[in-house]
Design a protein that fits this description.
The two termini are about 40 Å apart. The radius of gyration is 20 Å and the shape is extended. The protein contains six helices and no strands. About 60% of the residues lie in helices and about 0% in strands. It has one domain. It holds the Pfam family NDC10_II. One of its GO terms (molecular function) is DNA binding.
Amino acid sequence: MNGAYLTSISREMMRSMTGSPPHWSIILFARAALDLPTSLCKKLFPAIGEWHDRLAEKYLSPDNNDSIQPTVAASAFVQVIMMLSKTFIRDSVLMMELYPCHPTWQHSIFSDPAYLSVKRNVKIIALKCIGMLTLICQGTTAN
């Protein structure tokens, strides 16, 4: 896989070799566009917002005596965790369909009204995308 980026193998070819549908990006982009409530993301990683604020504050007024030293790596890590929480929440809807008995789904976040709203919206997006993929695979265009 690492060598594929240095060769002329296309992304579509790499995706097809892994078993992904050829137009999978439609679902990925549609799902990524869904806004999530901040309160829901904070429930997954409760302290990450605090760390984000603390690092931002340190960039604005650095204090060399403080144990928290803002670095590019620290900020990037916090941003990755924030993005991971959004991705996990979005993907959990479809993962729940595949593995309904997994103990993870017993967590209180999955019965939260905000999550249930997101779950409903992700399912609507998935159904629309499946319809679009069906039309694309049949060689027709939707008007």
